[in-house]
Structures are given as C-alpha cells and as structure tokens.
UniProtKB/TrEMBL annotation:
Species name: Cladosporium halotolerans
The protein's name: N-acetyltransferase domain-containing protein
Gene3D superfamilies: 3.40.630.30
PANTHER family reported in the protein's UniProt record: GNAT FAMILY ACETYLTRANSFERASE, N-ACETYLTRANSFERASE DOMAIN-CONTAINING PROTEIN
GO MF annotations, alphabetized: acyltransferase activity, transferring groups other than amino-acyl groups
Amino acid sequence: MTIRQCTEGDIEAVAQLCARACSDDALIGHLMHPHRKEYPDDFVQYFYSRISRNLHDSARCHIVTVESKETQEIITGYADWLRCDDGLEGPLRVSANAGQERLQNRAANPAFADVIERAESYTKHYWTGSRARTWLLDFLMVDPCHQRKGFGRQLVNFGLELAKRDGTCASVIASETGYLLYVSCGFKPVGWMQEGEGNPLRDLPGGQILFNEDTGRRISPKRPIWYLQLLWTFLHQWLSTVVVVTAVIVST
C-alpha cells in the first residue's frame, strides 16, 4: 500500500471511486443526488467537476492510496485536505460556475445544490480562535471493495502530519460510518453540523464536528542532565547562604 499526490490522470478513476463510496451517503447521495441511480454518469460528473476544479488549489492537498496488482495500479482511496488560515471564511465557497454545474446535473436535487455552503453559517464559529488555523479533511473516500484495510487511516494520518508540520490543529465533519475512525486517530467531538434553528441539514444523520488539537502543541524538549545539576548546585548554595545569614542574625 502506497500513498501519493493525486494527478489529473487520476481524476476519472477517483470520481468513479467517490460515486461508489457515496452511493448510500446521507448527504451527498440521498439528499443532494436523489436521482443518482437513474443518472449514474451525472453523479460521477459531480465528483469529476469538484476534483478538477480544486486539484490545483494551493490551499489543498489531494492524495490517493494505491495498490499494485501485477502491472496495474489500483486507486483504493482519496482524500482532499484543505488548509484554512482564517477559519471557514472563504475557502469552502464555490464559484458561480460550480453552482451552475450542479443545477444542470440530472442526478441532483436543485433545492439542495448549495446546501453545504448554506449550512456553514450555523457552525463556522467552531473554526475560530485557536482553531481558525487548521487542516480540514474536506473529503475522504475509500472504495467499498477496499474498505477496512487501513487505507482510510493512512489518508487521515497523512493530514495529521501536515498539521503537525505547520503547528495547527486538524478538523473534520464525520459521517456516521467515519466517526469511529476519526476518534481512533485522536479527534475529539465538539459539536454537530446540524446545529441551529433553520439549518438545512438539521435532520441529517451523522455530522459530528471533530478536532485533533494535539497536532498543534509545541512540546518543549527535555532538559539535559547538566542543566538539572547546575540548577541543584545553585539551589544548594542559596540555601547554605540563607542558613548562615539566619545563624548570624540569631547570634546577635
């Protein structure tokens, strides 16, 4: 099992993989694309357009896990890690062209074409303060044929290393099936993406917001032995001086 950057040549295979992985997903599958079974190519096109549009975004890191089978390379998983420097202000916004693409997608429900963007306003307060700078796992997909083989964990750990490198936290909005994976990787729940009166995702299952804040901690190196010995010598001399001065005062 290896991990590498996603390339333009991977987009078609990754889009097909995402469509298979999201077929029964509550948000992208059932809510946003209720006609995906009637128009499977349009469902794949949603992922193809999304990946193509974001692949060269300098704030994103697109990675894939692959297995080599004889002379063929098989893509087994895909992740899109997004670097946020000011919370969710800006980076998750889609262009007008992206919105138009969704409206023309026959697999989609036009009423929910921008549901993710509309729901952000209810929960973006979680990405403020010390959490404003974060690596957000914006997308994680593992091919159903290759699940429970460690590919998802490998993709998550890659992003955690990015966060450690940059001294930031890591964050994710979990699906029902992904929650336990994230908890096992050190993420802790802080809220739900369905929060807030009028939230369009209010009745959706899953959706816990999790952060791994250990990645951003700067751990001080251990003091060397010579430093402790020097400190002890100083304290010993200071205590000896105090004893002598006290004895002089008492004798007078």
